[in-house]
Each structure stands twice: as structure tokens, then as C-alpha cells.
Automatic annotation (TrEMBL):
Name of the molecule in the record: Membrane protein
Superkingdom of origin organism: Bacteria
Organism: Vibrio variabilis
Residues annotated as transmembrane: 43-61, 73-92
Annotated keywords: Membrane, Transmembrane, Transmembrane helix
């Protein structure tokens, strides 16, 4: 009787250990998949919303022009890319041109920073410091940049890390 109990305990222990390992592996895979796909969830949700919203348009094109679902979907996608892509390309181009022009003006010594308005001093917490820094930049921009080059570099790095790299990755 004792031998049967020991065999039963041994079998249950092995089964529980195997189940625990399988469960842990599945949980690990689910967490890794969530971590990999989490940044794309808003895009997928918008895709779902657009697919549901544009379904009647696709059906209209299929009936009106006697098109296949592939052709209707392609036309809708191309119109969407044109409607969204054109303004994005124009704004991106304008940003790039203005950035290059500003850099060129700085290199040529022609960049002018206007003096700050007096209301800047009234800003809570940062007003006084901002006013002093802005005034210094307005008086002599090249000296201001040279004096604060390390701080500006660190600020740029901080902004890039916060904007480009997800929080889970940037902590490593």
C-alpha cells in the first residue's frame, strides 16, 4: 500500500512539474509576444476601425463599377495614401528645408534670436531662468551655444531616447 502511495506521489509530482514548466513557457511566450506587438496595437486598432468604416464604400465600388473586391480595396488604399501621404510629405519637406535654412543661417552668423517678452518672467517655476537664458541667447547666440554645448547635447540625447526608444528598452 505504501509503495503504491509513493508511486502515485512520484507520478503526480512529475506531472505537476511538467505542467508547471509548460505553463511557465506559455506565459513567457505570451509576455514576449505582447511586448513585441504592443507598439503596433494602436495602428492595428485604427486599421480595424477603417476597415469597418470603409466596407460600405468598397461594396459601393463593387456594385457601381462592377469591380472585384481586390480592385475596390486597392483604389480605396491608393486614395487613402494620397489623401494622408501628400500632406505628410509636404510638411516633412518643409520641416527639412526650414531646419537646413536655420542651420545655414547659424553657420553664416545671420541667425537672430529676438529678445524675450517681459511676460516670460511671470511663468511659474521656470520663468526667471528661461528669461535669463533667452536674453543671453538673444545677445550673443554663438557664445550661448558654445557655453552650453554639453547641456544641449544631453538634452538632444534625452529627447531622442524618450521619443524613439520605448520605455522598456531605454532603461537598459
Amino acid at each position: 500500500m505504501s509503495n503504491e502511495k509513493d508511486n502515485l506521489k512520484q507520478a503526480l509530482s512529475e506531472a505537476f512539474t511538467a505542467s508547471l514548466i509548460r505553463f511557465s513557457t506559455i506565459v513567457f511566450i505570451v509576455i514576449m509576444c505582447w511586448w513585441a506587438f504592443a507598439p503596433f496595437l494602436p495602428i492595428l486598432l485604427w486599421a480595424l476601425v477603417l476597415a469597418i468604416a470603409l466596407f460600405p464604400v468598397r461594396k459601393f465600388f463593387e456594385r457601381k463599377f462592377n469591380w472585384t473586391s481586390k480592385r475596390s480595396s486597392t483604389v480605396i488604399a491608393l486614395v487613402g495614401v494620397l489623401v494622408l501621404g501628400t500632406p505628410v510629405a509636404l510638411v516633412g519637406n518643409s520641416l527639412a528645408v526650414k531646419t537646413l535654412q536655420t542651420y545655414q543661417h547659424y553657420q553664416d552668423g545671420e541667425l537672430h534670436v529676438p529678445p524675450p517678452p517681459q511676460k516670460v518672467k511671470e511663468w511659474p517655476l521656470i520663468g526667471e531662468d528661461t528669461y535669463l537664458a533667452w536674453s543671453e541667447a538673444a545677445r550673443d547666440l554663438p557664445t550661448f551655444v558654445d557655453k552650453r554645448q554639453l547641456s544641449l547635447r544631453m538634452l538632444r540625447r534625452g529627447l531622442l531616447i524618450k521619443r524613439v526608444v520605448p520605455p522598456a528598452v531605454s532603461s537598459y
